[in-house]
Design a protein that fits this description.
Layout (H helix, E strand, L loop, with lengths): L2 H20 L3 H23 L5 H10 E4 L4 E4 L3 E3 L5 E2 L3 H13 L6 E2 L4 E2 L10 H4 L2 H19 L2 H9 L3 H70 L1
Antiparallel strand pairs: 1-2, 3-4, 3-5, 5-6
C-alpha cells in the first residue's frame, strides 16, 4: 500500500468515526423520544380495548411536557417524580441514574416513565429500571392496570380516578384533568380525520379528472383514426 493510500484510509476512517460520534442532532433525538410514549400508548389502547386516546390522555397528565415543535404537551419517557414536580431527563440512562440516586438515599416513593408507574406501590411491575423506562413495557403495565381497575369498578371514570389514587380529595381533581385532556385529544383526532378525508377526496377528484382527460383524449384520437380510415377508403376506391 502506498503512503498516499495509507493517508487516505486513515483520513476516511477518522471521518467515519467523527460522523458516528456526532449522531443525530438533539432536536431529532427529542422528537424520537417524544414519539416513543405516543406509539406505545396507542398500541396498548388497541391491545387492551381501552377507549381511544384515554390512556394517551393519562400519559400526558402524568409525564406531559411542552413540545415547542408541536406546540402541545406530550408525554416524556424519561420522567422521574418523587415528592413533587416531575423531572425530565434527556436520556434513559440519565433517568435511571436519577432513580438510583434517590434509592441510595432511601427514597421508595418514585414514579417513572411515560405513565409514571410508582415503584413503591407496584414493586413487581418491572424486573429492572431499564425495563421500567422502556416505553413499551411502561405503557403495557399501565394499560393492564387501568383495564383491571375498569373491571373492578365497572366504569372508566372510576378507573381513571383510581389509577392516580384511591383518596377522593386527590382523584377527583385528577379525573377532571385527565378528561379535559381527553376531550382535547379526541377533538384533535377528529380534526386529523377530517383533514385526511378532505385530502383523500381532493386526490380522488384529481384522479377522476385525469381519467376524464385521458378518456376525452382517447375519444378524440378515436375520431381522428375513424376519419383517417374513411378518408383512406375513399381514396382507394377512386
Amino acid at each position: 500500500m502506498s503512503s498516499a493510500t495509507q493517508i487516505w484510509s486513515i483520513w476516511f476512517a477518522a471521518a467515519l468515526m467523527t460522523v458516528a460520534a456526532w449522531g443525530p442532532p438533539a432536536s431529532a433525538k427529542a422528537a424520537i423520544s417524544t414519539d416513543l410514549c405516543e406509539r406505545s400508548v396507542f398500541h396498548e389502547e388497541r391491545a387492551q380495548r381501552i377507549p381511544a386516546r384515554l390512556l394517551h390522555a393519562i400519559s400526558i397528565a402524568e409525564s406531559g411536557r411542552w413540545n415547542k415543535a408541536r406546540k402541545e404537551n406530550t408525554a416524556w419517557p424519561w420522567t422521574v417524580t418523587s415528592g413533587g414536580k416531575g423531572q425530565y431527563y434527556p436520556t434513559k440512562i440519565a433517568a435511571i441514574r436519577a432513580v438510583q440516586r434517590l434509592q441510595r438515599q432511601g427514597v421508595r416513593n418514585i414514579d417513572v416513565g411515560c405513565m409514571q408507574v410508582n415503584l413503591r406501590y407496584h414493586p413487581k411491575a418491572f424486573q429492572s429500571l431499564d425495563e421500567a423506562f422502556d416505553p413499551t413495557a411502561n405503557a403495557r403495565y399501565a394499560g393492564r392496570f387501568l383495564t383491571k381497575l375498569h373491571q373492578e369498578k365497572r366504569s372508566w371514570v372510576q378507573a381513571v380516578k383510581h389509577y392516580h389514587s384511591a383518596t377522593r380529595s386527590l382523584h377527583m381533581r385528577y379525573r377532571a384533568k385527565v378528561y379535559k385532556i381527553w376531550r382535547a385529544e379526541r377533538r384533535k383526532a377528529r380534526d386529523e380525520r377530517n383533514v385526511k378525508q378532505r385530502e383523500n377526496r381532493r386526490r380522488n377528484a384529481a384522479r377522476y379528472s385525469r381519467a376524464d382527460r385521458i378518456l376525452a383524449q382517447n375519444s378524440v384520437s378515436a375520431k381522428r383514426l375513424d376519419w383517417l380510415d374513411r378518408t383512406t377508403r375513399r381514396l382507394l376506391d377512386k
